[in-house]
Write a structure and sequence with these properties.
The chain is globular and about 55 Å long. Helix content is 40%, strand content 17%. Helix 3 (80-94) crosses helix 4. The strands form 2 sheets. Strands 3-4-5-6-7-8-9-10 form an 8-stranded parallel sheet. A two-stranded antiparallel ribbon has the order 1-2. The chain has 10 helices and 10 strands. The protein has helices at 23-36, 50-60, 80-94, 113-125, 139-148, 167-175, 195-204, 208-217, 230-237, 246-253, and strands at 3-6, 9-12, 16-17, 40-42, 68-73, 99-104, 129-135, 153-159, 179-183, 222-223. Helix 1 links the parallel strand 3 and strand 4. With 272 residues, it is of the alpha/beta class.
């Protein structure tokens, strides 16, 4: 397994996203992923599956110090007291003493960012999170967050795949010494019929999805593909035995645009 290093965090380059996974199937998938060699599991308060993620972790038998567990604080818990209380609830559901990474899930303009980041930093100093960061933050918001936070921010977790140009956010993360973690890295399955990715994959004996994930990892980006199918787990992690050429990387970069976003809500910030 490769790692993305940022602010002292060693983030496994491939993880399991658990959005929309619920109940027993969620616990089974997490357990199976860890038995296959995954060491990075991503959840969130709003996913309502932290308890099942914790069950899957325990059932896997993998030692806690080998795991990298991320959860995310929902926007309604950004007031300082709410943030600390909700983090304790998350840890209780996961049955963990701490998470490896605690993120603000989306920006919330209704709570002063400095107050929220102060609370996030405090949660880290209390030992509830080894590392802290943000998700769905724009370049302008990243600049504000870094300036306002007393503790280093390890990452910005954002949508990133070949159809979405995220070069501005990537450059901003690099400037601040932060990692970029990509959610929806295979564009919610849309890439499986992509001719360019399929052609590149065929030359390496790999699928379009594997090419997609390899493209991200070669940019020093961590990716958290979500799947509900156990057979896909192996495919998504078997990307460390080949490399894309510079020409292939550029062909994939050429597919991206600012209009390729798949996750956009009414409360989203003004994207870069």
């Amino acid at each position: 397994m490769q790692f993305v290093d940022a602010a002292g965090a060693k983030i496994p380059a491939i993880g399991l996203g658990t959005w929309e996974l619920r109940g027993r199937p969620c616990a089974r998938l997490v357990e199976q992923a860890l038995k296959l060699g995954y060491r990075h599991i991503d959840t969130a308060q709003i996913y309502e599956n932290e308890r099942e993620v914790g069950e899957g972790i325990r059932a896997s038998g993998v030692r806690r110090d080998e795991l990298f567990v991320t959860t995310k604080v929902w926007t309604t818990h950004f007031a300082p007291n709410d943030l600390e209380r909700s983090t304790k609830e998350s840890l209780s559901k996961l049955r963990l003493a701490e998470v490896d990474l605690l993120l603000l899930h989306w920006p919330n303009p209704h709570v002063p960012l400095a107050e929220t980041l102060g609370a996030l930093a405090h949660v880290r100093t209390l030992g509830m999170a080894r590392h802290i960061g943000v998700s769905n933050f724009t370049v302008a918001l990243l600049d504000q967050a870094v300036a306002a936070c007393a503790e280093p921010l390890a990452c910005d977790q954002v949508e990133y795949h070949p159809y979405l140009d995220q070069s501005k956010v990537l450059q901003s993360c690099a400037r601040h010494g932060m990692a970029l973690v990509a959610y929806s890295p295979i564009a919610k399955g849309r890439i499986k019929n992509d001719q360019t990715l399929a052609r590149i994959g065929a030359s390496h004996g790999k699928t379009a999805a594997q090419v997609c994930l390899r493209w991200l990892v070669q940019q020093n980006v961590a990716a958290i593909p979500r799947t509900s199918r156990i057979e896909r787990l192996s495919e998504n992690i078997e990307i460390f035995d080949f490399a894309l050429s510079d020409e292939e990387m550029q062909q994939i970069f050429a597919m991206g645009s600012a209009k390729g976003r798949l996750t956009d809500f009414g409360f989203a910030p003004d994207w870069d």
